[in-house]
Structure formats: structure tokens, C-alpha cells
Design brief:
Layout lengths: L2 E13 L5 E13 L3 E5 L6 H8 L7 E6 L2 E2 L5 H11 E5 L10 H6 L10 H14 L15 H13 L5 E5 L7 H17 L3 E6 L2 H4 L4 E6 L2 E4 L4
Parallel strand pairs: 3-8, 3-9, 6-7, 7-8
Antiparallel strand pairs: 1-2, 1-4, 4-5, 9-10
Helix pairs in contact: 4-5, 5-6
């Protein structure tokens, strides 16, 4: 099976006000196969969000290598990393990150306006397909304030999928939802990415959510190990 993502020896530290450095990632090794759903679990402050930032090409590690869809990102320029991110990656955030003045359809369309843009007709079709896939085909004109938390997260899922990326990175995607809504949203997310042949990597502190994945990894003391620490 081909690899959607492979990280070797990722290290990241932050500089403290006194000039010293605090290690966050201490040599992370991680491989995710195509079409696999992998959960990375860890306690608050364990470095999960830092790891996701590295894997999403939003920041560079201090050391180590990262390949996305067999493309080594180590020596890529910022512009090349941006193009790779726009084409191959989709992001889902805990706080939805929807623009309040835009409709659901307009929020979903945003990724299509970056990089190599698509025509208006193709964009409308892609947006409609993505919203229908998450059960919101009839809410295209609704603005975020008119949607429940679960519906807003479903719009965020549709936005992440609209460019048909190879890999979805989800940061605590159900963290702001009640338990019942979280289960519904996760059902939709997993079904949709599998229907589209997309790989999913999610980070969470919730072992119950992580257990829904094909494989669970634990981020602990800046390193990855198999299984949950809960």
C-alpha cells in the first residue's frame, strides 16, 4: 500500500523568554497509508497541534523529513509547499473557522479560490457535491449564525473535501460538540472520506473518538508510540 504521509525524526522546539529552548517534538516517526484513518491521541500540551502544523506544511520542523504523497517536502520553497498544501491537503479545525459573513456555499468555495482556480460552473458543482455529501445540500445559503454547531462542522468538512485532497488533517474535529452531535459528525466525516478514497489523520485528546480510527497512535513526551495511553 502506498504512503499518504511519512515523517522521520521530526523535531521542534520553542524559544522561551529567558532565551532557553523547550523541546516539543523529540523525533517523531509517523507513516500513514493511503485510505487509512489514523488517530493521534495525547494529553493537553503534548504537542499534538504542533505536530499537525508540521504535517500540514504550515511550519517547518527544526530537524527531520516529511513526505506527502511521495513528495519530499524538505527542500521545497515556501511557494512550492503552499502549492502542495493547496492541492493535496484539507484541514478541519475544532472551532470550524467559518467566515461569518459568507454563506455555507461561499465558505466551502474558499479553497477553490486559492492556487489554480477552477471555473465558476465547476466550482458551483464541486461545492454542491461537497455539501450534499455531508447532508447540507439544502443549506447552501445559510450563514454560520443560522447553523447549529454540528452543521457548522459539517460545512467545515465539506470545505476540506471540496478540492478532493488526498489527505485530511483534523485538529480535535469534535472537541466543540456535545457527545451525540460529535458521533454524528464523525460518522459523516469517516463515511465521506472513505467514499472519496481520502486519507484521514485526526488528533484528539478523546480516547473514545480515537477508537473509531483504523489505528491509534499516542504522542507522549514528544514521540509517537502505538496504542492509547488512556
Amino acid at each position: 500500500m502506498t504512503s499518504a504521509l511519512r515523517a522521520d525524526g521530526l523535531r521542534k522546539s520553542v524559544r522561551l523568554p529567558d532565551g532557553s529552548t523547550l523541546p516539543i517534538l523529540r523525533g517523531v516517526d509517523l507513516s500513514v497509508d493511503t485510505n487509512e484513518c489514523v488517530a493521534v491521541i495525547g494529553r493537553s500540551g503534548s504537542g499534538k497541534s504542533t505536530l499537525l502544523t508540521m504535517l500540514g506544511l504550515l511550519a517547518r520542523p527544526d530537524e527531520g523529513s516529511l513526505a506527502i504523497s511521495d513528495t519530499d517536502t524538505t527542500a521545497l520553497s515556501d511557494a512550492e509547499r503552499s502549492r502542495l498544501r493547496n492541492v493535496h491537503l484539507g484541514f478541519i479545525f475544532q472551532n470550524y473557522s467559518l467566515l461569518p459573513h459568507l454563506t455555507a456555499a461561499e465558505n466551502v468555495e474558499l479553497p477553490l479560490m486559492q492556487g489554480s482556480r477552477v471555473g465558476k460552473r465547476a466550482a458551483r458543482a464541486a461545492v454542491a457535491t461537497s455539501l450534499a455529501a455531508v447532508g447540507l445540500g439544502d443549506r447552501q445559503d445559510a450563514r454560520p449564525r443560522q447553523l447549529s454547531g454540528g452543521e457548522q462542522q459539517r460545512v467545515a468538512i465539506a470545505r476540506a473535501l471540496v478540492r478532493s485532497p488526498r489527505l485530511i488533517l483534523a485538529d480535535e474535529p469534535t472537541g466543540a460538540l456535545d457527545e451525540e452531535t460529535a458521533e454524528t459528525v464523525l460518522d459523516i466525516l469517516q463515511r465521506t472520506v472513505r467514499d472519496r478514497g481520502t486519507t484521514l489523520l485526526l488528533v484528539t485528546h478523546d480516547s473514545r473518538i480515537a477508537a473509531r480510527a483504523d489505528r491509534v497512535l499516542t504522542l507522549e513526551h514528544g514521540r509517537i508510540r502505538d496504542g492509547s495511553s488512556e
